[in-house]
């Protein structure tokens, strides 16, 4: 009986198995389309391709021994057919070969079998080979306090163990893992996930697979994506209830009151996802319809909560689908990129309660990540609660509201504007204000200043005064605050009349814009001035803080275009930063959502920056 095996039968080793068992197995007519598909899979680094080629080599040995007649027939697939393999194009070519040769089609693919029967072909279907052990082969490395296991070719196995907040990265086996063992483990993990009802492949790309098996999330990296086979398995070691956290009653009342926008923030390993799981379970018990958006899916939630991943690799498509499902709350784990924040904001503004998990080293940093990504006035509608987790406990909770008022530390009534107030949830005391000041978005701490006695708004005011005066004066500028609404500006003697302007008009305009009374004096009038040494000789301007010390800043190379001077800061979207030249303060700006700072050419700021570039000064960016 003539046999035409398809790709699945070759990969599973069913052809050589049939020959070795003594069954009627000849001749074997291998379609060239099968060879081409196996070659393509092997080139992509897929084990199935290599396994199929090994089967063809076994058949060649059997043919040399006279056990079977093996011939290659048919044509190679076209590139268009190869790219359409998942749509059945290659399977169709193989069926055509079986029909032309009047042979029996041997397959382990149930769909291929049913289609061939429908077309009137002789078909022999064999059950696909079960791959993998059915268990997690690396589970032996885990104990009750192990959160993650880290394995790599040529290294000793390591793990993170301990209580939340007290994790230690430690060696757990003195024997170095060789490549053969790592390949065996990696293959078994992937095959077990494919075949077991307890697992699935979350991601499968050449060089990287992400597996979810029971409550383990396992990342398997291979060359050339990684420099060796690496397996990282993570498992939650704690499942909590919202009652286990501080402010539990208050948070429950807040979440039940109405759908809200919540950011759960903290450092890696702090317990953010564990708290998010507790919130999800509480909301479900409170009769809310709860869904999750995760990539990969690893929150440990009950069966009542459906876990969604990126639809077609795009969370925006997932969000569109969820809006049709109409959940009351959605847990978004994790919100990292600009697109993630956009999806989060769109769903929240559509009326869905949103709980996002965000990496941040301070509670206020989580909120600042929205700046530049969401319209400033919309932030309290998108996020009204920030929960900061540290060492597995609720450390800080912020209440976020908006109010039209004069910012704290300013008094002029005409300075009233929309201000986002960030208040301590427990005490109700405002801790930060976020608002637009002189065309820039700023985050100002409320309360006492730091060690030098300067408050946040005072520092901001000093920087803005200096920026305004530097756009007018030609020489060195120093600024000294005398109170919340008074300042003294020291300039070169030749600049006095120019800064003040005719009849005091120019300095009055600056005072009106900033809401601060400014007294203009020469450097010679500055108290404590050393005789004969100019203020400019210090190498610092007021507010720059110099270039030395612990913060040397990020060195950048501004790009000068026909209309703008552009500073690229792709990794700092939404952050407020200072630009300095050789350590001397130039201006403060917020990095836009495109990842850059654009200064219009022709402005005083752009002129200063271009002069610094022409002088080949070192341009640096510092956190504001």
Instruction: Report the total helices.
Output: 18
Low-confidence stretches: 530-550
Strand order of the largest sheet: 15-14-16-17-13-18-19-20-21-22
Mean pLDDT: 84
Task: Provide the structure class.
Answer: alpha/beta
Number of strands: 32
Named at the architecture level, the CATH assignment of the largest domain is: 3-Layer(aba) Sandwich
Q: Kindly provide the radius of gyration, computed on alpha-carbon positions and rounded to a whole number of angstroms.
A: 33 Å
CATH class of the largest domain: Alpha Beta
Main β sheet profile: 10 strands, mixed
Can you give keywords for this protein?
RNA binding, ten-stranded mixed β-sheet, 624 residues, T2SS/T4SS_dom, Beta-Lactamase, alpha/beta, 5 domains, Rossmann fold
Brief sketch in words of this structure:
This protein has 624 residues and is of the alpha/beta class.
Describe the structure.
This protein has 624 residues and is of the alpha/beta class. The chain has 5 domains: 3-125, 5'-nuclease (Rossmann fold), CATH 3.40.50; 139-234, Beta-Lactamase (2-Layer Sandwich), CATH 3.30.450; 242-445, Rossmann fold (3-Layer(aba) Sandwich), CATH 3.40.50.300; 456-538, GMP Synthetase, Chain A, domain 3 (2-Layer Sandwich); 554-623. Helices cover 29% and strands 28% of the residues. The strands form 7 sheets. A 10-stranded mixed β-sheet has the order 15-14-16-17-13-18-19-20-21-22, sandwiched between helices. A hairpin with a 2-residue loop joins strand 21 (430-437) and strand 22 (440-445). Helix 3 packs across helix 4 and helix 11 (315-325) runs parallel beside helix 12 (338-349). The longest helix has 18 residues, at 47-64. The chain is elongated. Residues 1-114 form the PIN domain. In the N-terminal section; belongs to the PINc/VapC protein family. It comes from Halobellus limi. This is ATPase. Pfam families: PIN, T2SSE.
